[in-house]
From TrEMBL:
It comes from Lacticaseibacillus nasuensis JCM 17158. Residues 35-178 form the SIS domain. PANTHER family: ARABINOSE 5-PHOSPHATE ISOMERASE KDSD (PTHR42745:SF1), PTHR42745. Gene3D superfamilies: Glucose-6-phosphate isomerase like protein, domain 1. This is Polysialic acid capsule expression protein kpsF. InterPro entries: GutQ/KpsF_isomerases (IPR050986), SIS_dom (IPR001347), SIS_dom_sf (IPR046348), SIS_Kpsf (IPR035474). GO terms for molecular function: carbohydrate derivative binding. GO terms for biological process: carbohydrate derivative metabolic process.
Length: 202
């Protein structure tokens, strides 16, 4: 029996939801606690690094952390090898995202990052991967497979990195005591920021 378009969409949504629920029940509390503590005591910037789909996720996470009070930006792993490494200092924390932990473009920046003295954290689904073992710390994000029928397109894995990163950003923001007033200061041009700023003036 041929599935309808709506049935197909719900099937793939259900696969992603199931993958996120699996991660929620298979977290390593010590890994989460350690990473949040590093971010809370960070003297430099929080930097995300990746390529391809993980690059897009990293850019979004950097924007989320920045908007919630943690100075953050994204560096493309390939561009880092061609000059953008100059953006990074020994005071920074670099989160490198790769589900397999074997993406060569994401592994390449590790030696220069070590020379700079930046702290590195792996966001990966493979705790035994080259990335996980080479970084100073690892946050394991377990994903059994992708949502598409071929099991190849970054779907569950990219959504997982986004969900985990967003949750950490929200937790850090809460622990820092980030307020609506702070949020308004970082969003002066948006409709929400304007609404909050007007509320302050009343």
């Amino acid at each position: 029996m041929t599935e309808t378009t709506t049935e197909l969409i719900h099937k793939y949504m259900d696969r992603e939801i199931a993958a996120m629920q699996y991660i929620q029940t298979h977290t390593d509390d010590a890994q989460y606690d350690a990473l949040v503590d590093r971010i809370l005591h960070l003297q430099g910037h929080l930097i995300f690094m990746g390529v391809g789909k993980t690059g897009h996720i990293g850019a979004k996470l950097a924007a989320t952390f920045a908007s919630l009070g943690t100075p953050s930006f994204f560096v493309h792993a390939t561009e880092a090898m061609h000059g953008d490494m100059g953006m990074i200092t020994a005071e920074d924390l670099v989160i490198l995202i790769s589900n397999s932990g074997e993406t060569k473009e994401t592994l390449a920046p590790l030696p220069p990052l070590r020379r700079i003295g930046a702290t590195t954290v792996a966001f990966t689904g493979n705790a035994d991967s080259s990335l996980a073992t080479a970084c100073d710390a690892v946050l394991t994000i377990p994903v059994a497979g992708e949502a598409d029928d071929l099991g190849l397109a970054p779907t569950n894995s990219s959504t997982a990195a986004l969900m985990v990163g967003d949750a950490i950003a929200c937790a850090v923001s809460r622990l820092k005591g980030f307020t609506k007033t702070d949020f308004a200061g970082f969003h002066p041009g948006g409709a929400l920021g304007q609404k909050l700023l007007q509320g302050q003036a009343l």
